[in-house]
Amino acid sequence: MELDTSSSIWQGKVVRLRSNEPGDWERYWIWEQDSEAERRDGSLSFPRSQESLKHWTQETAVRKQEGDNWALLIENNEGQVIGRIGSHNCNPRAGHFQYGLVIAKEHRRKGYASEAILLLLRYFFQELRYQKVSIQIASFNDDSVGLHEHLGFQWEGRIRRAIFTRGHYFDVLYYGLTVEEFEEKHAHKFS
């Protein structure tokens, strides 16, 4: 089905954010075969069966939303699902939220992650009145550190030896961005 999304807040120049659909189980199964990507996302888990992923995506597609915690897929302009982004630890009273992001290896360094992040931040800052976002990055994930620093995120701290993978402990780095910093650096992109 052709859909004109040019006026959608979820459509950027190179990506579109959308909800999960039952048929997305296969993409998740493929992603789970990439152990390095799973480590970057925070944890390496036991493999799941295709049937369990079918069941999970079916439930996710119809689950009632809980607060402002969202799980979205990222599509490029060709309609390929290239990654996922999701908000979590949302605190509307304090106006603070966090998110996580994964882009499939073959789709990295094409501007998809930057735009997906900015679309999500625009919604939270300009529609839901949040005032600050934070992200936790594994200290070995230099690509994510560079991306977030490029987007204007400020380094806020380090939790030592908080991740264990590949037989070693790694630190978690905390980065944050306020609504004012977002507006100053990125508001012109959405005019």
UniProtKB/TrEMBL annotation:
Transmembrane segments: none annotated. InterPro entries: Acyl_CoA_acyltransferase (IPR016181), GNAT_dom (IPR000182). Keywords: Ribonucleoprotein, Ribosomal protein, Transferase. One of its GO terms (cellular component) is ribosome. Residues 15-180 form the N-acetyltransferase domain. One of its GO terms (molecular function) is acyltransferase activity, transferring groups other than amino-acyl groups. PANTHER family: ACETYLTRANSFERASE, SPERMIDINE N(1)-ACETYLTRANSFERASE. This is 30S ribosomal protein S5 alanine N-acetyltransferase. It comes from Dictyobacter vulcani.
